[in-house]
Amino acid sequence: MDNVGGVDQPKRVVAIFYVLAAIALGIFLEKVLELALGYAGVNDFAVFSDWTLSTVAGFALAIATAVVVWRIPKTQQVSLEVALELRRVTWPTMRETRAATVAVIVASAVAAVILGLFDLVWSWLSSKIY
């Protein structure tokens, strides 16, 4: 990590995120291009031994997008600020997480019961009216 202005800059973490985002975008674009070529009736031929045209084009677009986005100074600055902010976050303990999860489950169950009762009442009233 680089030290700029007395603050550690997590460039490595941000770079790893961009690589992972490019891989995810490449997989998505591969599938989209595969569908588009299929609907257009174009043969998705093998460019390399195991890579089809949609795979190569999808990953090429994803890599180009990641490089272009990384080279925009404002995007790079915001990415580094987000990574720094995530390092400063106080994450909840396992006990706090369990307590919050139980609270959400109980609140959801209570809401489901209330909505179920409303549904029963309205269906009973509707059957009396109609």
Chart the SSEs and their pairings.
Blueprint lengths: L1 E3 L2 E3 L1 H30 L12 H19 L1 H16 L5 H36 L1
Helix pairs in contact: 1-2
Strand content: under 5%
DSSP helix count?
Answer: 4
Number of strands: 2
Sequence stretches where pLDDT stays below 50 over 5 or more residues? none
The domain tally reads 2
Shape: flat
Helix/strand order? EEHHHH
Structural classification: mainly alpha
For the largest beta sheet, what order do the strands appear in spatially?
1-2
- Biggest sheet overview: 2 strands, antiparallel
Task: Indicate the mean pLDDT.
Answer: 89
Secondary structure: helix percent = over 70%
Q: Name the quaternary structure.
A: single chain
Evaluate the radius of gyration: 25 Å
Distance between the termini: 71 Å
Mind explaining what this structure looks like?
By secondary structure, this protein is mainly alpha-helical. It has 2 domains: 1-89, no CATH class; 92-130. The chain has helices at residues 11-40, 53-71, 73-88, 94-129; strands at 2-4, 7-9. A two-stranded antiparallel ribbon has the order 1-2. Helix 1 (11-40) packs antiparallel against helix 2 (53-71).
